């Protein structure tokens, strides 16, 4: 059966309720010509995701497709392989669809340069990704249900596997699974429910059917309005749609109420926001997939259950948009490890806990890759296919596991940071460079007193996860203690961690020997919490950095507390007193460079004593804490840029009034690449 029979083949696919992958491996011009022929033979939507094709959807925009349905698609991976976008696109394709995957010749895959690696790799620049490409090659070429068309070889259609039981698309009526859940929801008088399932199981359709049958008021909330297309198609009623931010604002102001709130694609909404919305409605239904590519992993439900104790959870298992055992779904699940992990959360092994540092050559140890990654997806709510890419080809990664009877029950994933040139760190301190990576180290430089955090060698704990049934047994703390012990031997100056601040997490890290040295003023999109950063010094240089970081944190804490309304426990509040040199250093960095206003609130207040009448703008902004908008209006300025320029210039004049000679020395120092400790300015 040849290319000319592709149309009949695709029609048979539709009859069987199947979807299939067509790999085009060759030059882009050859691929373009073939795609034109295929799209003429097989009519459909042909949604295209590509970084360089005109009129195509960019990979980072694929989230717009969630909650919608299409027939046929093209995924152009010639220059970059965004696995999240691939998963989102695949989940929207209905029965009879062909997904065309465009890649270079298979013989060149081991040299494939993946531009998407800039997004997930913590080192600089793009990478070749030989391990992922070997993984892709093994799964794709080993799957008899994948159509492979190489430019250098003739094309042959595979043989379709026909099922004894015929498939039929449900004609708008609920399936038996859906009906059971619908009946329970319609009888509910109060409470919070969730419907979870892999893609294509009819979660959004069920929500639409509920709206159609329910006699009261229902509001719908989702990250994007077009993600409710499927929901809307299953009800004749008008949908009252609100974005999460807008709806929460209306709720806070008591401007809206309803019998039911439906949150579609709930895993894409920060958990803190979900929890807040649930408090305003007597009945809430959340629908979502927890396969990772919406932004959270299966641990999302564990996290949600912790925050909403009486959550009722329903599951849909049977595909509706396509038939069971769909070739395309099987291929994707193998490629991105999306199948449900085979953990029995009620079962608990007994025995000693063994801690091991793993080698990380996952492509040579597939069973270990499965165990490590599936533990993360089961126990950590932020795990996505992007993490699988890091595991396979990411640089500067280290891994530890905790096992009982050779079964992994806990895992820690670390990333090497620092070791960078002082000149680069100095530019970051000045606020003129923002290189990729070095999350904690760079933040400590950006808001700190010295550039050392990016120059010293550090290890950031990126992920830590323990299976639910093994928690509160000190497994996580034992893992951390082992990492501390091993890092002492490996010339690591300090350990660091960044986490969404909660009192419980802060207490855990403090018990492990870490101290909080930074607290962000903007909430994380995923957790809805403010970002906290903590460090554990391992060398004398690490100790010096800790003292310096605590001094900087102490200078900023009062303003951080004011902006976040978050007060740390007394034992977590930095008690270090900033020196006169610390204040001068912060003032110089703001006045003569490009550092943030957050770094100088207390320093400016100290400098202003006795000079308040001469600097009303500085008093208004830094002492009275008036907003940008208020200061712009009060002082007749044209906008934020002009305000910031005025604040810097006035700080420079204030410094000069205090001590012109010292101010000149600081201004001169900023133009050199000398460490501030080299100068005894004050």
TrEMBL record:
Q: Mind listing the GO molecular function terms for this protein?
A: acyltransferase activity
Keywords, in A-Z order: Acyltransferase, ATP-binding, Cytoplasm, Nucleotide-binding, RNA-binding, Transferase, tRNA processing, tRNA-binding
Query: What is catalyzed by this enzyme?
Result: cytidine(34) in elongator tRNA(Met) + acetyl-CoA + ATP + H2O = N(4)-acetylcytidine(34) in elongator tRNA(Met) + ADP + phosphate + CoA + H(+)
Q: Where does ATP bind?
A: 178, 321
Q: Which family does it belong to?
A: Belongs to the TmcA family.
Q: Which PANTHER family match?
A: N-ACETYLTRANSFERASE 10, RNA CYTIDINE ACETYLTRANSFERASE
According to UniProt, the name of this protein is tRNA(Met) cytidine acetyltransferase TmcA
């Amino acid at each position: 059966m040849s290319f000319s029979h592709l149309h009949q083949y695709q029609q048979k696919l539709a009859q069987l309720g199947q979807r299939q992958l067509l790999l085009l491996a060759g030059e882009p011009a050859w691929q373009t010509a073939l795609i034109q022929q295929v799209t003429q033979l097989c009519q459909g939507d042909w949604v295209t995701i590509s970084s360089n094709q005109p009129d195509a959807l960019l990979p980072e925009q694929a989230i717009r497709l969630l909650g919608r349905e299409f027939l046929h698609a093209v995924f152009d991976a010639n220059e970059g392989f965004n696995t999240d976008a691939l998963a989102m696109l695949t989940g929207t394709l209905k029965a009879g669809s062909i997904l065309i995957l465009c890649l270079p010749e298979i013989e060149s895959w081991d040299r494939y340069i993946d531009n998407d690696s800039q997004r997930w790799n913590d080192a600089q620049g793009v990478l070749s990704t030989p391990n992922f490409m070997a993984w892709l090659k093994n799964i794709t070429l080993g799957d008899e249900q994948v159509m492979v068309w190489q430019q250098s070889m003739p094309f042959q259609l595979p043989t379709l596997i026909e099922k004894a039981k015929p498939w039929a698309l449900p004609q708008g009526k609920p399936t038996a699974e859906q009906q059971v859940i619908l009946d329970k929801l319609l009888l509910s008088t109060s409470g919070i429910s969730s419907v979870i399932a892999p893609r294509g199981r009819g979660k959004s359709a069920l929500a639409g059917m509920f709206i159609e049958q329910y006699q009261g008021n229902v509001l719908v909330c989702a990250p994007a309005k077009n993600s409710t297309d499927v929901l809307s198609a299953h009800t004749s009623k008008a949908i009252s749609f609100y974005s999460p931010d807008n709806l929460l604002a209306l709720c806070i102001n008591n401007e809206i109420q309803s019998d039911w709130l439906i949150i579609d694609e709930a895993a894409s909404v920060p958990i803190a926001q979900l929890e807040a919305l649930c408090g305003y409605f007597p009945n809430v239904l959340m629908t979502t997939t927890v396969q990772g590519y919406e932004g959270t992993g299966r641990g999302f439900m564990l996290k949600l259950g912790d925050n909403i104790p009486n959550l009722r959870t329903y599951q849909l298992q049977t595909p509706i948009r396509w038939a069971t055992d769909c070739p395309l779904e099987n291929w994707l699940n193998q490629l991105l490890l999306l199948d449900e992990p085979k953990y029995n959360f009620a079962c608990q092994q007994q025995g000693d806990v063994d801690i091991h540092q793993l080698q990380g050559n996952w492509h040579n140890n597939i069973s270990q890759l499965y165990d490590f990654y599936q533990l993360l997806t089961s126990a950590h709510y932020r795990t996505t296919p992007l993490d699988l890419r890091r595991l396979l080809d990411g640089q500067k990664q280290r891994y530890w596991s905790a096992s009982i009877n050779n079964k992994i029950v806990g895992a820690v994933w670390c990333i090497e940071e620092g070791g960078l040139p002082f000149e680069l760190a100095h530019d970051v301190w000045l606020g003129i460079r923002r290189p990729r990576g070095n999350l904690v180290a760079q933040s400590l430089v950006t808001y700190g007193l010295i550039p050392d955090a990016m120059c010293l060698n550090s290890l950031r704990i990126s992920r830590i996860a323990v299976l639910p049934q093994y928690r509160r047994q000190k497994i996580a703390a034992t893992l951390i203690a082992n990492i501390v012990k091993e890092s002492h031997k490996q010339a690591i100056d300090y350990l660091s961690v960044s986490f969404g601040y909660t009192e419980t997490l802060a207490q855990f890290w403090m018990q492990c020997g870490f101290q909080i040295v930074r607290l962000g003023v903007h909430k994380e999109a995923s957790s809805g919490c403010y970002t906290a950063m903590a460090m554990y010094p391992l060398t004398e240089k690490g100790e010096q950095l800790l003292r310096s970081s605590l001094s900087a944190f102490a200078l900023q804490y009062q303003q951080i507390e004011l902006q976040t309304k978050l007060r740390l426990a007394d034992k977590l509040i930095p008690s270090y007193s900033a020196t006169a040199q610390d204040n001068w250093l912060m003032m110089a960095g703001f006045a003569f460079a490009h550092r943030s206003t957050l770094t100088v609130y207390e320093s400016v207040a100290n400098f202003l004593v006795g000079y308040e009448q001469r600097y009303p703008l500085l008093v208004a902004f830094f002492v009275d804490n008036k907003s940008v908008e208020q200061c712009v209006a009060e002082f007749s300025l044209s906008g934020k840029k002009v305000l910031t320029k005025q604040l810097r210039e006035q700080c420079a004049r204030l410094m000069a009034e205090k001590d012109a000679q010292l101010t000149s020395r600081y201004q001169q120092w900023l133009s050199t690449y000398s460490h501030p400790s080299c100068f005894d300015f004050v």
